[in-house]
Predict the structure.
Amino acid sequence: MDLAYLTGQRPADTLRMTEHDIIEGHLIVTQAKTQQPLRIVIAGKLAELVERIRARKATHKIVTGALLTNTNGKRLTAPVLRNHFDAARKAAVKAAPSLKEAIEGFHFYDLRAKAADDTSDLRGDQAASDLLGHDSVKTTQRHYLRRGKKVAPTK
């Protein structure tokens, strides 16, 4: 989930990310849906995540280039990702029953919208559009930015 959120990519694109896509401090992504090429700078929380992934992968006997792996060290598949996400959602409902409706209404793909909203808040709509690989800021605004503009009161 962290990798999908920090990169703002679709689940399928996140599953396809490999060690070989890390070149000169960038995670190179070519989006499957749009063929849009992106170079995501590996810094901050993303750099920490990549190090955590590498440390976890080093404990497995099976060597794969995939960034997302299962408990045996093999490339994570879409159905397994779905199962893990569903299990995490059930655990979250158990931990916070008062938020049951909100938790059950949250889907893995919503991480992409959250990444867009958070990036927009920090660096603007254009940065969010760039992260998601959109040619137009209007596409990002129409489909992904859910929070609305930040405005100040009159006084």
